Structure formats: C-alpha cells, structure tokens
Amino acid sequence: MPKVAMLPEPTKRIRWLTQAQARLLVAASPKHLADMALFSLETGLRRANVTGLQWSQIDLGRKMAWIHPDEAKARKAIPVPLSEVAVTVLLQQKSAKWKKEFIDAVFVFRGKPVHQTGTLAWKNAMKKVGISNFRWHDLRHTWASWHVQRGTPLLCIKRARGMRNYGNGTTIRTPVSGSSGAVGTVS
C-alpha cells in the first residue's frame, strides 16, 4: 500500500468546483463548451487531450478512449475508461447535425474542430453563475478532487490520468471533504 504523507497547505492557487457549481456552469455554457466541460469533468483529461480527441481514439463498445503517447504530457499512453455520462456526450457528438462526415475530431463547433476553450462564451458562462478565478485546467482539478472525496486512492488518480512522477513522489494538490487545502504526496 502506498505511503501518503500530508504536506503543508501550498501557496499555489487550488481551484475546483462543487458538484452544484459544475452543474450550473455546464448548464450556463453554450452546447459545444458544455459538452466538452462535462466530458472533462467525467474523464479528468487535459484540455489539449479533449480538444484533440479523434474518433479513432474511441471505442464506444468497450467504453474506452486512448490518449496516444505523443499526445500525453508524460509521453505515455493513457487508457481512459468512459463513464455513462461521457459515453452519452460522445454519442450526442457523433449524431450532431453540424458534424461533417470528413472530420475525425470529436468536438466540433460550426463544422470545425474546437481548439480554444477559454473563450468569451466560457467567461460569460462563469460570470453568469458567479464563478471567478477558474481556468479550464481546473476541471481536471475538480475531477481529482471529486475522486479524493469519494475515497479513490491518490496512486489510482495519478495512474488514471498519466501524471508524471517527480522525484520521490507525485504531489496531487486537491482539497478534500471541504477543507481548504489537504495535500497528499504519492510515493
């Protein structure tokens, strides 16, 4: 069993959403961003992995997606189990009226692959629901925080999303159980 050492509260900013905040933000976002945000919250993938996701990386029958090593920050392939919610998002994307047959990109807007997420529409959605100081990458922090709150071991979170091992351990900065900054190191 991995040894988990508690560290002092970090001085870096840690931002994550509650389930209620996430629901409000997704509901306030335009459809193409709402789907991407929901998929990010369900998978914990980085923005670049979501915006760059291709249909050839998805097996809906097995409920799996793959991030290729050359697309992963740690340069290792990442298997991505897909929840029912993530599968539903993908099925909606596959059947979207604006989807052009020749585009392999999963997430499209007006017939073109989505590359930018920090758009004015995203900022307006956050403002509408009273969320500030929040970046797209914080959806990944939210995913990890929710897992920690449900009791998922830190090592499992690390492995699930291809987090690199820095030195003797990997630090996952994520508040737990409403605390302002419990931090664990996985060794």
TrEMBL record:
Does Protein biosynthesis count among this protein's keywords? no
Which domain of life, per UniProt? Answer: Bacteria
Give GO MF terms, alphabetically.
DNA binding
- Start and end of every Tyr recombinase domain? 12-187
| Keyword presence, Glycosyltransferase | no
In terms of PANTHER family, this protein maps to: PHAGE INTEGRASE-RELATED, PROPHAGE INTEGRASE INTD-RELATED
What is the designated name of this protein?
Phage integrase family protein
